[in-house]
Design brief:
The structure is a single chain. Helix content is 32%, strand content 18%. It is α/β, with parallel strands linked by helices and 419 residues long.
Length: 419
């Protein structure tokens, strides 16, 4: 593996490796890094039936049930935050604390916030629409617009962290969290910031949205046993289980992190993106668009395919996506690196998924343990994949690629290297 300083992490006036110095994560499997990692390594799905979805075509999701979000957010401004914003803020604070930063002490003008969100506060919008129909215009909250817009997460996190550098909210559907990390890396290597808080958040577990995904055939319909519904790369997969959550990473130039006495948790060695230009929701079956993103990340990292020791797959458990991704992995990585897919445990958290997968990939590098794919005994016979199943695999992993693919044909790949 070639490691040129001007390529690891991207070229630019501030070229050099980009370090991951902090992690934050709030998922249905756990509300912090330790709980999330334990849940992922256990390999057990957290999908459950939801009383509020009774009567919907699909009545189960993966939800963040065990946390008092209002208490964790705190302060007098919590009333104006939609659920996805609260999740994002909790994850961002975790990551900043983990990185050893103090928002009261840093130069906020050199701090960027990049948080991908796909939908925004749809539940707030629906609630206010029902109120208006029942009680008239005066019942609509004056806070509706700032609560529902997708960039509310980036804005509220910037306010809370006193971050006055670039604040962006990329929306690339289910690739949004990974897109945010890639964009944040670019801000660092072009000198537009010194610290970036990046990731994604989503919370749309409402009857309307769940029904909409079900109507388009995207969701699993295994109502008899929701816990086994999400089964990435299985021959009998029939759709994803919708989830909610948030994850963030703190990124800095490696030299800056070490100068302040902070050892990186991993290095973001490269990133690549592409677009299928094929269909509004379905991936291009041949996987060429997604392959272009993976190959771009490899070039950016200055790796050959054989340098990749592990693949954290998008692995939605849908027939089309998993088939496309399996084809891509087999074609790009003929040495068959071990594959995992966190969505078997936490479901598909939409815009948060790419960021959650990035956190999982960093933890895999750190722990030397690849989590298993939940509900999978063996991949479908047509997939030539080395999937980690049943229990985690102890393996020292030096390099890994994390895949993220979204509706609209958005593809992102992130390349991480162990420190």
């Amino acid at each position: 593996m070639t490691q040129r300083a001007d390529r690891a992490g991207g070229s630019g006036p501030y070229g050099g490796p980009v370090a991951v110095t902090g992690l934050g994560v709030v998922t249905p499997a756990g509300g912090d890094e330790r709980a999330f990692w334990a849940g992922l390594c256990e390999g057990r799905s957290v999908a459950r039936r939801r009383p509020e979805l009774a009567g919907a075509p699909v009545d189960f999701t993966c939800a963040v049930d065990d946390l008092d979000l209002d208490a964790l957010v705190g302060g007098r401004s919590v009333w104006r935050m939609a659920r996805f914003v609260k999740l994002a803020l909790i994850a961002a604070r975790q990551a900043v604390s983990d990185a050893g930063h103090d928002p009261l002490a840093w130069d906020g003008g050199r701090v960027a916030v990049v948080l991908g969100v796909g939908v925004g506060g749809v539940s707030v919008l629906v609630d206010n629409a029902l109120k208006m129909r029942a009680d008239g215009p005066q019942s609509v909250s004056p806070a509706l617009v700032p609560m529902m817009i997708p960039n509310a997460a980036a804005g509220e996190v910037a306010i809370a962290l006193r971050a006055k550098g670039p604040s962006l909210a990329p929306a690339t559907a289910c690739a949004s969290g990974a897109t945010a990390i890639a964009v944040a890396r670019d801000l660092l290597v072009t000198g537009q910031c010194d610290v970036a808080v990046a990731g994604g958040a989503e919370s749309v577990l409402t009857p309307l949205v769940v029904t909409a995904f079900a109507r388009m055939g995207a969701l699993s319909t295994r109502k008899g046993d929701p816990a086994v519904a999400s089964r990435p790369f299985a021959s009998d997969r029939d759709g994803f289980v919708i989830g909610e959550g948030a994850a963030t990473v703190v990124l800095e130039r490696e030299a800056d992190a070490r100068a302040r006495g902070r050892a990186p948790r991993a290095l973001l060695a490269g990133a690549g993106s592409s677009t299928d230009a094929h269909h509004p929701t379905a991936p291009s079956p041949d996987g060429r668009g997604a392959q272009a993103a993976v190959e771009a990340a490899l070039r950016d990292a200055d790796w050959s395919p054989y340098d990749v020791a592990h693949v954290n797959a998008h692995g939605t458990s849908t027939p089309l996506n998993d088939a496309m991704e399996a084809t891509l992995i087999g074609r790009v990585f003929p040495h068959r690196p071990p594959v995992t897919a966190p969505k078997g445990v936490v479901g598909h958290t939409l815009a948060a998924a790419g960021a959650i997968d990035a956190v999982a990939t960093v933890l895999t590098l750190e722990h030397g343990l690849i989590p298993p794919i939940a509900n999978l005994d063996a991949p479908a016979v047509e997939f030539d994949l080395d999937c980690v199943v049943k229990e985690g695999r102890r393996q020292r992993v030096e390099t890994a690629i994390s895949h993220s693919f979204g509706f609209g044909g958005h593809n992102v790949a992130l390349a991480f290297r162990r420190v």
